[in-house]
Amino acid sequence: MLRSRTKLIELGKRQLCRSMCKSSELTLVEVDDKTGIATLTMNKPPVNSCNLEFLRALKSAMKEIESNKCSGIILTSSNDKVFSSGLDLNELRQPNPERLATFWKELQEMWVTLYLSNVPTAAAINGHALAVGCVMAAACEYRVMLPDFTIGIHATKFGYVVPPFIVNTYLSVLPHPVVERALLQGKIFSTQEALQINLIDEVVNSKDEALCKCADFIGSFEQTNPVARALTKRQLRAPFAKQLLEDPETELRESLEYINTPLFQESLDQYLLQLKKKNKK
Ligand SMILES: CCCCCCCC/C=C\CC(=O)SCCNC(=O)CCNC(=O)[C@H](O)C(C)(C)COP(=O)(O)OP(=O)(O)OC[C@H]1O[C@@H](n2cnc3c(N)ncnc32)[C@H](O)[C@@H]1OP(=O)(O)O
């Protein structure tokens, strides 16, 4: 605790970044010179599905934003219909064992980086946010969403047992009975339904408005001490991340075992077929 506090104070002494604009193919980071807020735009066509390289790019963008002492992160998408379609299902289908293990570790690390980020995090959900797309939004501290899209974790519908840290992401935002029903049904919520259950904080009519609301949210911490804020956030969130932080190997092993079962592979094949068929109609 003392070590991490010292590290944070050292970070606090560094200059607030005034302008940084770094693009990779998969992510785009723009920092507002006045506010120090970084907008991290997911940019993996066609639907921001998370493969190994994309998870890596997201994690490294977030770490870089934090190390540049920005005042907060807004997560959004360059696609105006899809925030993220979740994990790239091709990574899970008949996987190469080594790549699958690396992929899953990246997933764990990306989640920890976002969920326990030292800086305020907000999601401008400008399109569908499915499965891990929803998890990323729910891992942020604030969510604003455009109308007529969908959000939720429907893993049970395609034969995926939801790992504890994903359950915990939902539990950070929603009451237990709501989480239980939503996960067991594999419920996908409309924007309006998501607002009613408080999965999102607000509905807005444009991406610009969403970005402004997120910036206002991050600005609301201007008067707080960033070190005290970050440590308090960590205290509140650590119990939900404890299992994964203390024993990532067990979660990794259990996930890999499950992904490799014939039961999971068969239901994944069927699900991917449905997804492709939809486009041929
Ligand atoms: C952060 C730590 C998390 C740890 C987690 C484990 C938790 C377990 C829970 C979930 C795991 C997942 O995330 S699995 C991913 C589940 N995602 C989906 O089921 C989304 C499926 N996609 C859609 O419903 C739609 O694509 C869409 C609504 C997102 C967009 O619709 P649209 O019509 O705009 O686009 P298309 O359907 O035509 O898609 C274009 C193209 O992309 C392919 N596609 C879409 N999603 C995926 C995906 N997730 N993985 C791989 N490929 C995907 C789709 O088949 C189309 O391909 P073709 O052009 O070749 O037909």
TrEMBL record:
Quaternary context: Homotrimer.
Reaction catalysis annotation: (2E)-tetradecenoyl-CoA = (3Z)-tetradecenoyl-CoA; (3Z)-decenoyl-CoA = (2E)-decenoyl-CoA; (3Z)-dodecenoyl-CoA = (2E)-dodecenoyl-CoA; (3Z)-octenoyl-CoA = (2E)-octenoyl-CoA
Listed name of the protein: Enoyl-CoA delta isomerase 1, mitochondrial
Pfam families: ECH_1 (PF00378)
Coiled coil regions, renumbered to chain: none
PANTHER family noted in UniProt: ENOYL-COA DELTA ISOMERASE 1, MITOCHONDRIAL (PTHR11941:SF45), ENOYL-COA HYDRATASE-RELATED (PTHR11941)
Annotated pathway: Lipid metabolism; fatty acid beta-oxidation
Protein location: Mitochondrion matrix
